[in-house]
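Last lecture ended with a question: if I hand you only a sequence, what can you say about the shape of the protein? Today we answer it with a concrete record. The protein is Lysosomal dipeptide transporter MFSD1. Below, first the input exactly as provided, then the predicted structure, then a couple of comments.
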Amino acid sequence: MDTDGVAQMSNHRHWHILVAVCMVMWGVYFVYDVPGSLSVALQEHLSLPAPQYTYLVSALYTAYAVPNMVLPFFSGYLVQRIGEKWVFLATLQAVLVGQLIFSVSLQLRSQLGMILGRVFIGLGGEIIGVLGTEITTRWFKEKQLSLALAITLSVSRLGSVAKSAIIPVLIEDFGIVRAVWIGSILSLGVAVVGAIYLLGVRGGTLVHHESENAGTMSSVRQFPSIFWKLALICVLGYGGINTFPISAQRFLAAWFYDGDQRKAGAVTGIPYFLSGALVPVFGLFFNENSFQSYPPSLCATNILMGVAHLLLLVITKPTLPLTMLGVAYALYGVAFWAALAQCLLSTVESISAKDNMSHSWARSMNESEYGSIHPPEPPGGFPDDPEEHQPRGASAESLITLGYGIMTSLNNLSSAVIPILLAKVENVMGFTGLEVVFFILSLLGLLASLELFFSVRVPLH
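The predicted structure:
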């Protein structure tokens, strides 16, 4: 291959990386949402009464989320100590083993085994997401970052869409056991192919960063107040978005389709199909906008979600509110993750600027002390002042990984706690209670977004 061809491939490598990340995320999202698509077929397969089955489904999602209430927080530390490559391999293996345990346990009708399998999937699934987002941010931070993050989110959502469309059809044609095995092989096969590319690319796709203090509490204290306001928005927003699929198919089948699970499964995919299709569009829009455009968008998404959940209680066809949820999910995902990415990059830039100022100050003090007769500059430059310029913790990449990890931990905290609340509310108030909970989450999310809106005065970049 000639020199121009090699250069052209190098110029497009970041897009190849993005495709591989998307493949991994598509497979992980497919696996994550499998229990929600099994619906009544799983209840019949396990011969469980409705209340007990409700708690089991909630337990399957909670088992996934519980490890990720803590583990992603330490993702930056793990990357710093053993490198992205080994963290990536370990977490991918956990997902593969977990889905194998889940599939075998479902075949054997072992509820405990199914929960154990979900724990293993949880040990790997979310950290893979953190690493994928950090890789995308690193490769696109100076070229269309919002669009790249939007594409990743879009393809991930399409994993949930594919699950909702494929699993019910497979259950009707092959039964629940074979359906789960086929779906598992399909989704994890795609993820493994993407992972092989990421692991094989030269030039630092999965890197090892050197730092002594990565992932420590001193690094956490470097995040600005806007980061923690985004954290609250994350807990409230994804508390509703991530948990809606748990009961959506059963709710829609009971309220709108006379118990027809196949029809309900088809329309359940509407929000995720629309969010997957619209995310790139919103990504292009936000690609040219400042941080100030994100808080109004987050307000709009919570209004859309709140109105949609109210409409599901009073109308006879679910298409309109599900469409509204799809638009809201797309806008929310792009606005939130783009705002977080800009917040983290601005934090790194601010720390770097302070370090440079401190370094310049130390140099000027040395020069003023020695006057015109100062010793020659040693290799690597003058040492920094030990009191004013201590190492500030993680490298830029690991600090970004830490930020994504913290947000992922909080995301999973809400995904672990809210399903328990939903199960209790459903057993007391039925499906009506579920929609009321989702409406309240949207209302609280709107208030948090308004607080962010009024606190932002200037762009972050």
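Comments.
1. The chain has one domain: 10-207+214-365+388-455.
2. Confidence is low (pLDDT under 50) at residues 1-10, 210-215, 361-394.
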